[in-house]
Amino acid sequence: MSATTTETGTSFVPAAETLGAVLAPGARPPRPGALSASMTFGWRAMLKIKHVPEQLFDVTAFPIMMTLMFTYLFGGALAGSPTEYLQFLLPGIMVTSVVMITMYTGVEVNKDIEKGVFDRFRTLPIWRPSTMVGYLLGDMFRYTMAATVILVVGLVLGFRPQGGVVGVVAAIALLVAFSFAFSWVWTMFGLLLRSEKSVMGISMLVLFPLTFLSNVYVDPATMPGWLQAFVGVNPISHLVTAARSLMAGAADTGEITWVLVSGAVCVAVFGALTMRLYNRR
Amino acid sequence: MTTPSTRHPRPHADVLRDTATLTGRILRHWRGRPVSILLGLLFPVLMVVMFGYIFGGAMAAPGGKYMDFLIPGMLAMTMLFGLESMVVSVTNDTAKGITERIRSMPITTTAVLAGRSAADILNSVVGLAIMIATGLLVGWAPNRSLLQALASVGLLLWLRFAFTWVGIYLGLLLKTPESAVAVQVLVWPVGFLSSAFVSPDTMPAWLDAIATWNPLSATATAIRELFGNPSWSAGGWANQHSIMLALAWPAVLTVIFLPLAVRQYRALAA
After folding, report:
1. What is the least distance, in Å, from the CA of B101 to any CA of chain A?
2. Structural domain boundaries, residue A255
3. What is the pLDDT of residues A64-121, one digit of tens each?
4. How would residue B234 be classed by pLDDT, with cut points 50, 70 and 90?
5. Closest Cα of chain B to A35: distance in Å?
6. What values do phi and psi take at A13, rounded to 5?
7. Where does chain B have alpha helices with state H?
8. Is A33 within the bounds of a domain?
9. Do B198 and A76 touch (CB under 8 A)?
10. Domain count, chain A
11. Please, are residues B29 and B122 in contact by the beta-carbon 8 Å criterion?
12. Which of the four pLDDT bands, split at 50, 70 and 90, describes residue A6?
C-alpha cells in the first residue's frame, strides 16, 4: 500500500489489486436484458400498490360508484329501465374508468423525479426505456383490475354480454393494450412538467372532454351536430365501439383495427418523445 | 406612589360592523385568488353544457325540452356546490392559525360566523347570476312573472344560507384542509340523489323515495313551479307541497347546524 504525504498529513492510497479484491470478490454479474429490467421495474410498481393500498381507490371505489350512479339514477330516463341501459353503458364505463386512471403513470414518474429516485435509475447499466416500461407494466395490472371490478359489478347488476367469456376477455385485452399505449402520453407529461399537480391538471383537462364527449353514456345520434362531429373523431368513441362489439359477440374489425393502429401511433410518437426527454434530463 | 391605571371595560362590540369587516376580509381573499373562484363559478356552467347537450337529447323529458327541466335543478345544485368551498375555506383558516387569532380578538362569535355566511351568500348571488345567464343563453325559458322569479332566487339563497351553516360546522369539525376533501362524499350523493337532473319517478322505488325527500329536490321542484317549467313528476305529496318543503328544509338544517357551528367554534379553545 502506498502512502502520500500532503501538507495536512499522510493519506493512504490503496493499491488497485487490494481494491479489486475487496470490491469484486466474484465474477461481475451479466447486464440484465431488456425484458428482465422492465419486469423488475414493473414489480417495483406493484410493490408500491402493496405498500400504499389507498392507490387502489380509483381502481375500485370510483368505477363502482360511476356504474351504480349512471345505471340507477339516469338509466330509467335514458333507456327506459336501468337493466336495459346497463347493457349499453357497461363497456363504456369500463373504458372511461380505465382510461381515466392512465394519468397516474405520469404522476408516478413525476413523483420519482421529485424524490431523486429517477436519477439513481439513470446510473444503472440497464436498457434505457426499462424504467418507463416498468411503470406501464405495473399500471397494466391496475387497468386489468379496474376492468375486472367493473365487469363483476355489471354482472351482479344484470349485465349479460352476448360475446361470452371470449368476447369479454378480448374487449378487456384491447382496452388494456390501448391504455398501455395511451399511458405514454402521460409519461411524457410526467417528464415535461415540474409538479405532480400540474400533471394531474393537464391530464384532467384532456381526459374529461375525451371521456364525456364520447359515445360512452348515450348514442351520439341524440346529440347536436357539432358535438356529433367531435364524438366521431374521438379515439375513446372508437375504443368504446370496439369493446361493445366484442362484448356483444359481433366484432367490428374496422373499429378494432382503428384502435390498434392509433395505439401503435401513440407508442411511436409519445414513446419516442418520452425517451428523448428521459435521455436529455 | 403611582396610582394603578383603572382598566376600562370594553364597550359592547358592534356586531354589524364586525360582521361587515370579516365579510370584507373574505371578499379580499377571493380577490387574491381569482382563478380558483372563477373555476368554482364556472363548474356548474360546465355541468349544464355536459348534461344539456350530451344527455339532453336522450332524456325523456316532458315537452321534449330537457333544458327547461335541467336549469332550475342546476340552480339548486349551484347552491350545494358552495358547501365544499366553505369547508375548505374554514379548514384553511384553522390550519393557518387565523381562526385562533380572530378568537383572541374582542369580536363576538356571531360576527365571525355571520361574516363567513354573508360572504358566501354574496358569492352565491354571483354564481346564480352566471347560471341564470347561461340558462338563458342555452334556451331555458322561464315563463312566469318577475315577482315569482325573485321568489325563486329567494328560495335558492335560503337553501344556500342553510348549507352555509352545514359547511361552517363541518369545516370547524374537520380542522385540516386535506380532510375537507371528504366533503365530496357528502356533496355528490346529495346532488345526484335528487330531482336536479332527472325525475325521481324514473329511478328504482328505493332511490325514488330518497330523491323525492332530498332538501335539494324540494327547492328544485319549487323553483320549477315558480319559473313555470315542467316538473316531470307524477304528483305525490312532496311535489304538491314543494314550496312549503323548500321553506321548511333549509329552516330545519339551519336550526340544527347553526347552533352546532357556534358550539364547535367556542369549543376550539378547549
Report:
1. 31
2. 38-280
3. 877 888 898 889 988 888 988 998 999 998 998 899 888 878 887 887 887 788 787 8
4. low
5. 40
6. -110, 110
7. 15-32, 34-49, 66-95, 98-103, 109-137, 146-174, 184-192, 205-212, 215-227, 237-240, 242-267
8. no
9. yes
10. 1
11. no
12. low
